[in-house]
Design goal:
three-stranded antiparallel beta sheet, 9 helices, alpha/beta, about 50% helix, single chain, binds cytidine-5'-diphosphate
């Protein structure tokens, strides 16, 4: 059986941190597909090629953009350097949805994700927008995480260490909203739950409850895994 857990959802739904915790508990590796889209965008920005898909992919290839196994999560790398921090910069965030809408970029990213996942001896938790719908439609467990826009904006500000005052909240919610709209409206692999995904609304759930709920599903779908007791 394919050992893949797909966690999809909009920006700020907490899918990356959730995926990381689930992966740790289960003994799987964690692949953050968004980090790969961001690393391709960074390579394109640095090479000044973002007006051309071919040139941006060539820049990503030249920089050997990839997710590299580290101590814990796979980390995005470009030109031999860990770009985990750089890919979260505002200039990358502002451009990434445009780059991710290019079909050739999506195929390039999907090839990397599938190759990395199949090569992994234990299994992987992959988070993104289209993991359950396009990249791993056969994943035994698919979770779609949602949360109210204001809750997501608050989480994103906390993650960035910024104050959740009215100005920041409004601006961040608007930025998340426009990226979600671009991701949901695009022709290829739009943001939406797979028909067989479990939709979890994290608005009222704490982070631990969210992880516990997913681990409960993991135990059901992968009974052969010894993941220890979850706090029910
Ligand atoms: O962390 P955050 O929710 O801000 O976003 P991310 O997971 O780092 O993804 C950044 C962007 O990459 C998204 O807004 C999408 O445009 C794109 N993306 C995608 O199209 N498909 C994926 N599987 C993952 C990310």
């Amino acid at each position: 059986m394919l050992r893949v857990i797909a966690i999809d959802g909009p920006a700020g739904s907490g899918k990356t941190t959730t995926a990381q915790s689930v992966a740790r508990a289960v003994g799987f590796a964690h692949l953050d597909s968004g980090a790969l889209y961001r690393a391709v965008t960074l390579a394109g920005l640095d090479a000044g090629t973002l007006d051309s898909v071919e040139a941006t992919l060539a820049a990503a290839e030249a920089a050997h953009v990839a997710l590299i196994p580290g101590d814990d999560p796979f980390r995005p790398q470009a030109s031999g350097v860990d770009v985990s921090e750089a890919v979260r910069s505002a200039r990358v965030t502002a451009q990434v949805a445009r780059v991710a809408a290019w079909p050739a970029v999506r195929e390039w990213v999907n090839r990397q994700l599938r190759a990395t996942a199949t090569a992994h001896p234990a299994g992987v938790v992959v988070d993104g927008r289209d993991i359950g719908t396009v990249v791993f439609p056969d994943a035994p467990l698919k979770v779609f995480l949602t949360a109210d826009p204001e809750v997501r904006a608050r989480r994103r500000l906390a993650q960035e260490g910024r104050a959740a005052d009215a100005g920041n909240l409004g601006q961040t919610a608007a930025q998340l909203g426009s990226r979600d709209a671009a991701d949901a409206r695009r022709a290829v692999a739009p943001l939406k739950p797979a028909p067989d995904a479990v939709v979890l609304d994290g608005t009222a759930l704490g982070f631990n409850e969210q992880v516990t709920e997913i681990l409960r599903l993991v135990r059901k779908m992968f009974p052969q895994l010894d993941i220890g007791p979850t706090q029910d």
